[in-house]
Design goal:
Blueprint (H helix, E strand, L loop, with lengths): L4 H7 L1 H5 L3 E4 L2 E8 L2 E4 L3 H10 L7 E5 L5 H12 L25 H6 L4 H5 L5 E4 L9 H4 L1 E6 L2 H13 L7 H10 L7 H14 L4 E5 H6 L1 H11 L6 H5 L2 H8 L2 H6 L7 E3 L2 E4 L18 H15 L7
Parallel strand pairs: 4-5, 4-6, 6-7
Antiparallel strand pairs: 1-2, 2-3, 8-9
The protein binds adenosine-3'-5'-diphosphate.
Length: 316
Amino acid sequence: LVSSPEQREEEHADLIAALPSASAADSPVKLLRYQGFWLPDFYVAAAINLQQRFEPRRDDVIVASFPKCGTTWLNALTFATMARAAYPPAGADHPLLRLNPHQCLPFLEGLFQGGREAELEALPSPRLMNTHMPLPMVPRAVPACRLVYICRDPKDMVVSLWHFLGRLRPELPFNSVFECTCDGTMSYGPVWDHVLGYWRAAIARPDKVLFLRYEELLRDPAGQVRTLAGFLGTPFSAAEEASGTVDSIVKLCSFGHLKGLEANKIGHLNPLLPIPRDALFRNGASGDWVNHMTPEMASHLDEIVAEKMRGTGFTF
Ligand code: A3P
């Protein structure tokens, strides 16, 4: 039985109307709390539909992240790694030279929100997709397919988010974004529950979930790309190693290279978020939080996160 997006919204209208709501500093839209997570209201029906209707294939790969934690970079690296046979990373016609990394793979909640999930069905295997949704919104993904998750020091995430949102709302005070991070009331938040869901899944099924850190990617991009390729079941061959494929991927996806491309300077991200694409490439480093928050603010956020993570074995 096929129903239109409007019918589906309608199907879930009662459930959605009963959800707790909040306005949040990080979002111009209303947030609704669905199964413990604050989602932009226009993505709640998408989350329900994802849970009910997304059919993962065994060879699917999903890049997952909390916003502003390195999604664009990981999208680019995963795409370049998976597509390396068809598109050699040093090639002059590589898609990443003419497309923004987000245009190289579909955004799950975007498709489900727009009633365009049939486009997913039409994709040839192996499919590569991207989501910011917490793991409970894609409940059949583990162990059905593979997931690559990236996390980042929440202090740097806050700074990155504030700059990003500032492109739409220059008057937005840093403190409001900081405070909504501390109390969890932000899009896809709380960040600690988002991270923990994927981290626990990675512990339970390391063959299915690869848990990466932005800071580690910065420290050793080539090593992390080798780990990624191995996890995806396509480790670099001796011939690829000898011809410098890993370094070509790292270089192709590097901050400086992507930032300089025309495809990443012009246009907007998507109609729901009319932020210029170049906002995705700001600083590309770790530790910028020292320039934006006092040591007291930093320890306050660190303590909240440490408290939430207590007993889980996870540390940032
Ligand atoms: P900063 O604002 O701290 O610079 P996301 O892609 O999840 O929205 O995350 C955006 C953050 O990743 C931004 O952080 C951005 O500069 C950084 N970033 C984007 N592309 C990158 C790359 N190729 N290498 C390193 N960092 C990158």
